[in-house]
Amino acid sequence: MTDLDALAFARGPGSFTGVRICIGIAQGLGFGADLPMIGISTLKAMAQGAYRIAQATNVASAIDARMNEVYWGRFERLESGDWQEVDQEQVIPPSVLVENIVADEHTWTTAGTGWDAYSEPLSTLAITTQASEVLYPEAQDIAYLAQFELAKGNTVPAEEASPVYLRDTVAWKKLPGRE
Questions:
Q1: Cα–Cα separations (whole angstroms), residue 8 to 73, 101, 119, 154
Q2: Which BP terms does GO give this entry (predicted)?
Q3: Which of 10, 57, 106, 154 would give a disulfide with 77, using CB separation of 3.0 to 4.6 Å?
Q4: What is the domain extent for residue 166?
């Protein structure tokens, strides 16, 4: 650990429990080694995975967020190897996403579990897509993306590492009478 400059972690979005476990472990390691931390988007990490596997430079990431929603983000690869957000990360019902996405000249490589979970509505998006085998973010892609954030100075102390859920009312929806 003393050879590391920083500790990268998947900051979400994703399952509440998975994101919390990831950050809890990363914070423990960060505290123990006194390392700064770098949170990386799981959606962007999947875009990097699609590039690593298939050289995709335009990637639409969708993770099944349950409750008839997807975590969504589109990314375009820059010449530097970093990624630019085309659509801001969001949690959205596929039917609303279909209404809001405007056609463009790109072919978007798909990544994530949302494409299978909501194949019917997402197949009607106004964009051209091609499938990839990327379903989940991988550590090697998170580490790759962390290099860019470290170079920009985008680190936080371990105590400030925080998740990105995009949805903050999950627990309330599960309680009776709190719909």
A1: 20, 31, 32, 11
A2: tRNA threonylcarbamoyladenosine modification
A3: 57
A4: 7-174
